[in-house]
Every structure is written in structure tokens, then in C-alpha cells.
Design goal:
By secondary structure, this protein is mainly α. It contains six helices and no strands. The two termini are about 50 Å apart. The relative contact order is 0.06.
Length: about 170
């Protein structure tokens, strides 16, 4: 149930009922109806008003919280968009630098593609499936990549590029 529905279907009808009970009590007081019956209706009326004001306060508090959350969500979305713009610029520059380094190593187009897929976390088997070649073919290309780059494995390959991106000062 949405907050507006809660207000419309619960809080407002309870407030209206409380008012009708109050008018009924006033009318019965003027007609001289029994005291016990009027006391019972007064208790019901008070309970209705207490329930109405508690529900109204809860609705207002939840509305305030909801508005706060909406403001926070809007800010987070804005921050996310700014981050995406920064990353897109950095990503473009990184891709260019990566391609230049792979060129300097003298990698073929196929070796470059396989090296990039490997750095993205794919296994040799996944790369073979994606490229529709055998595992052995991919492993042969990887051996060539490692030889030309003078690196020993996928971790050194990834670290070669990430090390320049991440500059963490320890201590």
C-alpha cells in the first residue's frame, strides 16, 4: 500500500468516524439518553481520536522519512552519473594506453583480443568458446603474449596495467 493510500483509506475515515461519534454524543446529551451509553460512546470517541492522531503522526513522520530518502536517492543518482562520466573519460584514456602498450609489444590483433579478454577475467576455455576456437589455440596465443610482453602469467599481465592506475599510499 502506498503512503497516499494509507492516508486515504485509514487515517481520513477514522477522523471522519471520530467526528460523527462526537456529533452523536452531543445529540444524545441533548435528548437525555442514559449516562452509561453516553460514557461508552465518549470512550469510543476518545479512542477514535487517539487512533486518528497517532495514525496521522505516523503518516507525517513516514512522509518526512520518505522525502528524506528521495532526496538522498536523487543525490546518489547524481553522484553516480558524475562517477560514470569520470570513469568513461578515464576508461577511454586507459584503453588507448593499453592498446599502445600491446602495440609496442608487437602483439597481433588476435593476441591483443585474447590478452584483453584474459585481463577482463575470462578463462582460456571461456575465450576459446567465445572465439569459437580450441583451448589449445588460445593457450598458444597466450604463450605468445607472455613471451612478447616478458611476463609470466595472467596475474602479471593484469598487474602490469593496474599497477599504474592504482596509487595507494600506505602508512
Amino acid at each position: 500500500m502506498r503512503k497516499n493510500d494509507y492516508f486515504i483509506y485509514s487515517v481520513i475515515p477514522l477522523g471522519i468516524t471520530s467526528i460523527f461519534i462526537l456529533f452523536d454524543i452531543i445529540e444524545e446529551l441533548s435528548t437525555g439518553l442514559g449516562v452509561k451509553f453516553i460514557i461508552l460512546e465518549i470512550a469510543i470517541c476518545i479512542s477514535s481520536f487517539v487512533g486518528f492522531f497517532r495514525m496521522l503522526r505516523k503518516y507525517i513522520n513516514e512522509k518526512d522519512v520518505s522525502e528524506g530518502l528521495n532526496e538522498e536517492l536523487t543525490k546518489l543518482r547524481s553522484d553516480s552519473e558524475q562517477w560514470k562520466k569520470k570513469v568513461k573519460l578515464i576508461s577511454h584514456e586507459f584503453s588507448h594506453a593499453l592498446d599502445q602498450q600491446l602495440e609496442e609489444w608487437g602483439l597481433s590483433i588476435t593476441e591483443k583480443e585474447i590478452a584483453v579478454l584474459l585481463m577482463k577475467g575470462m578463462s582460456a576455455k571461456e575465450i576459446a568458446t567465445l572465439r569459437k576456437v580450441s583451448d589449445k589455440t588460445v593457450r598458444t596465443h597466450l604463450t605468445s603474449v607472455y613471451k612478447k610482453s616478458k611476463l609470466n602469467n595472467r596475474y602479471e599481465l593484469a598487474a602490469y596495467f593496474i599497477d599504474g592506475l592504482v596509487d595507494i599510499k600506505l602508512g
